[in-house]
Design brief:
By secondary structure, the protein is mainly α. The protein has 18 helices and two strands. Strands 1-2 form a two-stranded antiparallel ribbon.
Length: about 400
């Protein structure tokens, strides 16, 4: 444990030039906020480590297999769980890091994901949106569930940083090509199906966005994403164990088997018979208080109520007009969130898995929500400005009329 604490301190100082790099590119970013966020994130590393020490955890499997693997390192290089062994191998096998130290290192990867998402939000949102006097972006950065599932040796931390890099790079894909490729690479090799959702969202968003981009450039980017999706389709189908001749039928069989398997985890919810809207509600907002069976469920329920409150902001007559006029990033975020939610909701029959899986896509929903709230705030500011100008014009007109009357008299 002493070595893990030492690494935690070392990484704090490693963070400083990284934070300065983002600060130089985005002046609005707060260095102190990111330092506090790091300490907060590492608090969840400690919580996760303690919980995992007394309960089954995938992190133990990743550490155990990677640290004792005797064959070639590159024999582990394939998509899925094997890729996690591949990532952990240099640290656990070659360097011989113990379990606690490896957990700190991968928790740090999760923190880097928060850095990228923070930059993504602040770069694309110009008008601060506040709740009870606090910036909403700041509140979203400190959501406990997001930190818990990205603070360990596991897919959650790795895929989170990959998704964050992908989203951040899409603002200026030509200038951030390496970041875009790195994020795509990470997401694909950890969770290939999630990469397809990202590619789909990026293609739709880029093509339909209002950004002043020549049509041929939009077409090239969209065709690139589509070709990438088609090329990787076979690998994703094989990864999921689906039948290429009848993907729909085999997907239904696969989701039924996954739901049955996850039901055995002890926190199951029988959603096979639910209509799609109810499945999505379960995926996005449960567990709620009536699902609670332990203290963790209670805290998660509080967070889910907050999700419900934020999502309710979209139930507004201005949302559709906003969506039509929104940027490519907003549309990308919405398509990615909805497509991944539909797919994942079919296989999530266990609330524990739901809590873990949805953390990788919720920030896309949050970006749509904050963008809409910013749009409403801009609209309100504009109306106030117009009203103020109208009143000034009326006052000037009245003064002019009064002056004219005096001159006549």
């Amino acid at each position: 444990m002493a070595a893990a604490i030492f690494l935690l301190i070392v990484l704090y100082f490693v963070n400083q030039p990284i934070i300065r790099y983002f600060k130089n590119k985005h002046r609005v970013l707060s260095t102190s906020l990111m330092n506090w966020l790091y300490l907060y994130h590492m608090l969840f590393w400690m919580i996760y480590y303690i919980v995992a020490s007394f309960n089954p955890s995938d992190s133990k499997k990743y550490f155990g297999v990677s640290s004792t693997y005797t064959q070639s390192w590159f024999s582990l290089f394939e998509a899925g769980t094997s890729f996690m062994y591949f990532l952990a191998y240099p640290f656990t096998n070659v360097l011989g890091l113990n379990y606690a130290v490896a957990m700190v290192l991968f928790a740090w990867f999760g923190y880097i994901g928060f850095l990228y998402f923070y930059a993504f939000f602040e770069e694309n949102l110009k008008v601060p949106v506040k709740i009870m006097g606090y910036k909403l972006v700041t509140l979203l950065l400190f959501l406990p569930n997001m930190h818990y599932w990205t603070s360990s040796l596991g897919k959650g931390a790795v895929v989170f940083v990959g998704i964050a890099m992908f989203a951040y790079a899409l603002k200026e894909p030509q200038k951030r090509l390496l970041t875009l490729l790195a994020g795509s690479f990470i997401v694909y090799f950890v969770r290939p199906h999630v990469f397809l959702f990202l590619a789909l969202g990026a293609a739709v968003g880029y093509f339909t966005g209002r950004k002043n981009v020549p049509f041929y450039q939009k077409a090239v980017v969209c065709v690139g994403f589509i070709i990438g999706g088609v090329v990787l389709y076979d690998q994703v189908v094989a990864f999921a164990g689906l039948n290429e001749d009848n993907v729909l039928s085999s997907f239904e069989t696969y989701t039924s088997e996954q739901s049955d398997r996850l039901e055995e985890g002890g926190s199951g919810v029988d959603i096979d018979s639910y209509p799609l809207p109810l499945k999505l509600f379960t995926f996005w907002f449960r567990p709620l208080f009536f699902d609670v069976g332990n203290p963790l469920g209670f805290y998660v329920s509080i967070e889910n109520v907050f999700y419900l409150y934020l999502t309710a902001q979209l139930l507004d007559k201005d949302f559709i007009p906003f969506l039509k006029r929104s940027s490519s990033l907003v549309k990308m975020s919405l398509v990615t969130f909805l497509s991944s939610s539909v797919a994942l909701s079919f296989v999530m029959g266990n609330l524990g898995i739901v809590i873990r899986q949805k953390s990788q896509v919720m920030y896309f929903l949050f970006f749509v929500i904050i963008s809409f709230m910013e749009y409403k705030r801009r609209k309100m500011i504009y109306k106030r400005k117009m009203l103020k100008e109208k009143k000034l014009q009326e006052m000037k007109l009245q003064e002019q009329l009064a002056l004219n009357e005096q001159q006549v008299a």
